[in-house]
Amino acid sequence: MAVFSPTVVRQPRSHDLIDDPLEVRGAGIGFDGREILGLLHEAGAATVERRYTRGEVMFGEGDPGDALYVLTEGAVKLSGGYHGGKEVTLMLLGPWEFFGDLAMGRRAYQHARAEAMTDCRVSKVPRVFVERALRTHPEIALKLMDLLRMELVRHREMAACLRPHKAEVKLARLLPLLVQRFGEPQDVGLVIQLRLTQEELAKIISSTRESVGYALAGLRRRGVLALVAGRMVILDPAALKRLAAETVRNEQHQLQLRPLADVYP
What is the set of domains in the chain, with CATH numbers? Predict the structure, then answer.
């Protein structure tokens, strides 16, 4: 099976970025998934490739974890449910990122629901082939350990978007992550190619659609963000980074000034 070229987020050329405020990792995100898939192919692992259309579910929360999935094209949403039948978005994945719960030698179950956010192409490596490759090629085990470390980093980055109280600050932390995965520098600014509704953004940052709409309007008034053809465009990456950092510092300062009885009733 051929290994397809990843979508690369290139370094912006004409937006007066200073020290890359959004830390766009052009060769970082996704290349580990491409490498592990190549190693598994070399070890003789069989893979199943499938295309999904937007909204199609790849597996549900609680389904058996019987394979390693590598996204080769498109975008995937991992989500979970909680009380009241509500849904929270746990992660958005771009090309060449891996996903799926997989345990060696015992049963595993999916902790999240995987849904195609766009038309997607996914390579699925059944567990039996992963286990066989690990026994015969120890270097693959080391690479999988590194992938698990990267997965923890991804979840910590997403969790950091939830800590601030204000939706505007949550968005200021989320948008750089979206740029890393789905951003493309154009003349108008850094364009996030993945289209997200206000409701979808609210599910990512654990907010409401109304709060997200108000926060987006505030970012537009500041000249930080624009909407072009339904896509978010970052006009001033440095201001976006300052907004996230300064507002978080202000909230921490206010928390320090509150009486302990208010903080710990």
Answer: 31-160 (2.60.120.10), 167-263 (1.10.10.10)
